[in-house]
Write the structure tokens for this entry.
Amino acid sequence: MNYENINLTKSMYTNSSKSFSQLLEELDPSSEYAGTELEGMDAYQRQLKRFDIKVCGKDSDMVQKFFAASESSVLFPEYVRRAVKQGMSEIVNVEDIAAAVTVIPGIDYRSINASISSTISTEIAENGTISSSPVTTKSSLVDLKKYGSMLVASYESLKFQRIDIFTVALKRIGAGIAMQQLNDAVSIIKSGDTGSNSAGVVNVTTANTVTYDDILTVWAALQPYEMNTMIVSKDVMQLLLAIEEFKNPLTGLNFQGTGKLSTPLGAKLICSNSLPEKTFIALDKNYSLEMVVSNDVSVEYDKLIDCQTERTAITSTVGFSKIFADASKVLSLATA
């Protein structure tokens, strides 16, 4: 089969328009393996099979297995990148609260300002006026930030470790990056990015607590958007979970089965340390935020291939832009 004959080189990481995995897929398309025992694997996973590298489970190999041959060592940076990405998605996948994810080749990007009326009529009377829906380019660039961590470990200390335990450490790095990105995303949703598109504030009935009626008030205020996501501070999370409606057995079953919390209204519930106490945000994730990705997850491939793991940077460069200001609402419990 073709996957056994691909020449793996360090230069495969230097293509600015395609990732290592994308290049592998071009050289070894997964579609050609339909109906074979390798169906369901991507091109990278077939390379792991080629060199008999087991990366998970109780029988996973030691890290040094990647470096048994010069070509198999080329697979190591992609393994690190995938493990970090896995950690980013397991805690909270920031892409899940973005209406759109825009991948850009550089660092300069202008998003849009959308001001489409929620009362657009589908019927226009004879000689009637058609309502306008202005969509313009923002005057300022999206603020892209680099998030990351420095992997500090000598190859000598890693080579005899099982790959699956090293994966745990890499996933934790990814989780940290994802939480940093979530904090910035929440800040943009709450305060906006132009000085004039912050989320509207909804008044509550009782200070310092939250009731089911408060949730319904926010739900109504968000119309015609759908309240499908709630981002809350830690103390508000505790208050919400004490509400009788949140003790619904189906809510508990969903948490036990998926590890994801949802509200009685079906909204996904996310806890964020970046929110001040007694605050939660309700939003329609389909219209509120754009995530701009300049660099998904990048590792210093040359160092990793050459076993120079002592100080290896793992980074991700992204930014966020508010799309519809009225697609999110903030409820503060500090005052009533």
Summary: The two ends are 68 Å apart (CA to CA).
